[in-house]
Amino acid sequence: MISIFVTGGTFDKTYDEIAGRLSFDVTHLDEMLQLGRARLPVRVRTLMMVDSLDIGDAERATIVAACVECAESQIVITHGTDTMVETAAAIAAAVQSKTVVLTGAMIPYAFGSSDGLFNLGSALSFVQVLPPGVYVAMNGRHFSWDAVRKNRDTGVFEPADDR
Amino acid sequence: MISIFVTGGTFDKTYDEIAGRLSFDVTHLDEMLQLGRARLPVRVRTLMMVDSLDIGDAERATIVAACVECAESQIVITHGTDTMVETAAAIAAAVQSKTVVLTGAMIPYAFGSSDGLFNLGSALSFVQVLPPGVYVAMNGRHFSWDAVRKNRDTGVFEPADDR
Amino acid sequence: MISIFVTGGTFDKTYDEIAGRLSFDVTHLDEMLQLGRARLPVRVRTLMMVDSLDIGDAERATIVAACVECAESQIVITHGTDTMVETAAAIAAAVQSKTVVLTGAMIPYAFGSSDGLFNLGSALSFVQVLPPGVYVAMNGRHFSWDAVRKNRDTGVFEPADDR
Amino acid sequence: MISIFVTGGTFDKTYDEIAGRLSFDVTHLDEMLQLGRARLPVRVRTLMMVDSLDIGDAERATIVAACVECAESQIVITHGTDTMVETAAAIAAAVQSKTVVLTGAMIPYAFGSSDGLFNLGSALSFVQVLPPGVYVAMNGRHFSWDAVRKNRDTGVFEPADDR
Questions:
Q1: Residue pLDDT, tens place only, C73-110
Q2: Taking the model in full, what pTM does it have?
Q3: Rounded to a whole number, what is the distance in angstroms from the first to the last CA of chain A?
Q4: Band of pLDDT at residue C161, cut at 50, 70 and 90
Q5: For residue D130, how far is the Cα from the chain centroid?
Q6: Minimum CA–CA partner of B35 in chain A
Q7: A119 and B121: CB-CB below 8 Å?
Q8: Between chain A and chain D, how many beta carbons pairs sit less than 8 Å apart?
Q9: Are D38 and C126 an interchain contact pair (Cβ–Cβ within 8 Å)?
């Protein structure tokens, strides 16, 4: 069984047509798993629906606790990209014997041109075969939590030391 | 470097609006890698653009030869689902020291509701971390070539012995 | 009140992922009206779900009868493009005092790149303002039933005498 | 020849994946006309790319001038929905002998679930058959500029006196 924790982020942003701006409603995760015809045993739980920039210590503690407490040893977390690496570090400090993969999207899934479905397929695959540890899966690649950063100019995740 | 071999299949079917039927044009692979914002070093080569049911001995020999001859040790092959397992077996008989992952789609990528992007993200991830061998990646799962079959009633790939 | 008669055609084709070919299921008309946020009083009725090439005398008689018998004086018909003009002529021979607009699509609505939603918006608009008569609405234009043909090389509807 | 003036609005909003917010780039109008397989003689001109709430007197004067000065007597204007009626009124005060149709979208065209393509098909159809005047085309309907308002609770355009 794979545990999937939803935290929001661009991945799950939607367009509020009355207010005329981006917002959060419910997660698209189930719809995406159906679209991918995924036949994995998964348990989806929405921890929060917030922008990555609104994830502070309290939110991070909630995510870490969920990783610690869940029965599953394979965990995928959808998360905004801006602070994904910080959350990964917090999880790594508390979780040793599980495989945790964080992923997200540069474009909301609800947009036609989203990378979300590709990233979800990628994260769910990495989590099944990588050894215990905390990873970021973006751009078709996986990185250990302590060897990655988001390049804010290009939006691409890259090895932490290769600029 | 990952080698991607395109062979056609539902994955790459398109709609010919003049003839009013499904057909093949060029592959959507590059567009899909761009959509997924993939930053993997890949080499894409179209071996053929045919329906899975039109893959016979000659076509299979071409695919096997491409796997044997390419310099890369990580190979993803897009392939129609109906004969994917047969092609996987043919490759397994000839290739030992490489990781080969076959994937496809139940719905053409050009259709809005395709599983193709999810499957591509999945296959590209599995190929980077699985040990040498020949695998099928569908439905978010991976199977060894000799332990999988497509259930033709449900369209789902499942362990070869679990019906 | 506008009467909408569904007859199938490319407009409503879907992809049968088990059989691996195009087929008909239920109409997408209601979903499309919702997507277009249409607030028109409409009555949608599916007369048949067939390929335009399978519309013969019997099917055409059914369509004509539906136009004659319905209470509404504004009628939109979704129809395959190959024989749309023939059906328009059959209706014109039987219906005088109503505005009937036939439309369709070159690409199935279920495909991402369909012209169906554009054509539906167009047909529903023309039917509200054109005087009684039988028309074809395609390519953003409207044509009287006796002054249009489909150019089979380009897929474009054009004045019957301008080649 | 139909003149199409682009002013921005939700219709043309796009997602800036580096900044993580909605913004304007170039118009999607040409892509939409291609998708709709429109074969109308049109001249597309981008007057501005702004949010409807940022359309003030100066912007409105620019739009009115464009309507007055263009050679075409059929004009479609894409415009944000929040101040569409105000702009329609300004045009009506200055333009008498042309048919001007304003339209927009509740959801950006770049989003999968947009009403934009439907509305464009509708506006381009109404402009060809309505008598001279200034109209709003939304929700599959057309309204004279002085008999319509946007219901801000529902996002629906409705007769100005029917609440």
A1: 999 999 999 999 999 999 999 999 999 999 999 999 99
A2: 0.95
A3: 38
A4: confident
A5: 16
A6: A115
A7: yes
A8: 39
A9: no
